[in-house]
Design a protein that fits this description.
Elements (H helix, E strand, L loop, with lengths): L3 E5 L4 H12 L3 E6 L13 E4 L5 H10 L2 E6 L6 H6 L1 H21 L4 E7 L22 H20 L2 E7 L1 E3 L17 H10 L5 E4 L11 E2 L1 E3 H16 L5 E5 L5 E2 H12 L5 E4 L8 E2 L4 H7 L8 H15 L1
Parallel strand pairs: 1-2, 1-4, 2-3, 4-5, 5-6, 6-11, 7-10, 8-13, 9-14
Antiparallel strand pairs: 9-12
């Protein structure tokens, strides 16, 4: 009987790529998703349970029905601006519902957990690139929810032996090179899909949210990491947990930052199309620069990103979005 993995939020952007990779590995996959932002049609296989992360009865039923070896969590709300506008919605979904998941795992004696955390836990960085030892001082409710869950996981390890690997994403981007799955958010807030939408439709210019940051060209700088490289890091984390490793936390990024303007220029080169832009105000809670020091996971888990060039990342996204149009 193949090992069973529960993927919470598995019908979303990163989740679908994760499900595909787990299935390729010969594992049994159960996806739990309420489909509020996920897409049933993009799921590449496995079992789908439609329901909420905070439904204790549903969770207990899943853990009785399936011999789950590990849980992967991709079900957080993840828009910085929305978290500032409606923080309680974020605390309810990202924190309170995760409490229910962890409680159900403890009842079911499931002790391996991989958590999608975020560079947002660092806030405005004191040093760049940012190491895992950097102080956690989030500047928005989204980042605060991630920090709270990380703290809960440490406490659950001490109290119940629940081992977790917390993966602090920088900016996930790109799409599966095979073309069958990619990024589909409604509404879309991520920069690269918005830039490519502008390449497809000249009537929808991309907004440059802030041009007065303390960066070389005045626009915010981010570290973009391909979704398949994120997925491979999760596979390495899963193997480590199944082999009996302890809890850990790792950054996931390419350790190189690109400004908003550099992303736009690269997309113009990749697509060969004009991309209209318009000026807009900064998003509340957005740091100026977020770039990862990801040397720890490279060293300890032998993680080797395959898509390190921004041009390559955008090429895979462009193939997906052009087919979606």
């Amino acid at each position: 009987m193949p090992t069973t993995i529960l993927v919470v939020g598995g019908a979303g952007y990163i989740g679908t790529h994760m499900v595909k990779r787990l299935l390729e590995e010969g594992l049994r996959v159960v996806t739990l998703d309420d489909l509020s932002t996920g897409h049933r049609a993009l799921l590449p296989g496995g079992d789908l349970v439609v329901g909420g992360l905070g439904d204790a009865r549903l969770l207990d039923g899943i853990f009785r029905r399936y011999a789950v070896a590990a849980v992967m969590h991709f079900a957080a709300f993840a828009q910085v601006g929305a978290s500032v506008a409606d923080p309680l919605r974020y605390y309810r979904n990202n924190v309170a519902d995760t409490v229910e998941l962890l409680a159900a795992m403890i009842r079911g004696r499931i002790t391996r957990f991989i958590f999608s955390s975020s560079a947002a836990v660092y806030g405005e960085p004191e040093a760049v690139p940012i190491p895992e030892t950097h102080p956690l001082q989030p500047t928005n409710p989204y980042g605060a929810t991630k920090q709270i869950v990380e703290n809960m996981l440490k406490d659950c390890d001490a109290a119940h032996g629940l081992k977790s690997i917390r993966l602090r994403y920088f900016n996930a981007a790109g799409a599966d090179p095979a073309g069958g799955i990619g990024e589909r958010h409604i509404p879309e807030t991520h920069l690269i899909p918005l830039v490519l939408r502008a390449a497809l439709d000249p009537s929808q210019p991309v907004s440059i949210m802030g041009s007065d940051y303390p960066t070389p060209d005045g626009t915010a700088v981010r570290d973009y990491i391909h979704v398949n490289d994120l997925v491979e890091a999760h596979m390495l984390a899963l193997r480590a947990l199944l082999d009996g490793c302890g809890s850990a936390v790792y950054n996931l990024g390419n350790s190189r930052g690109y400004s908003v303007k550099e992303v736009i220029e690269t997309a113009r080169s990749v697509t060969g199309r004009p991309i209209a832009v318009k000026a807009a105000a900064r998003r509340s809670g957005d740091p100026a620069v977020l770039v990862a020091d990801s040397s720890l996971i490279r060293r300890e888990l032998d993680w080797k990103p395959a898509f390190q060039q921004l041009e390559t990342i955008i090429q895979t996204a462009w193939r997906w979005h052009r087919n979606e149009a």
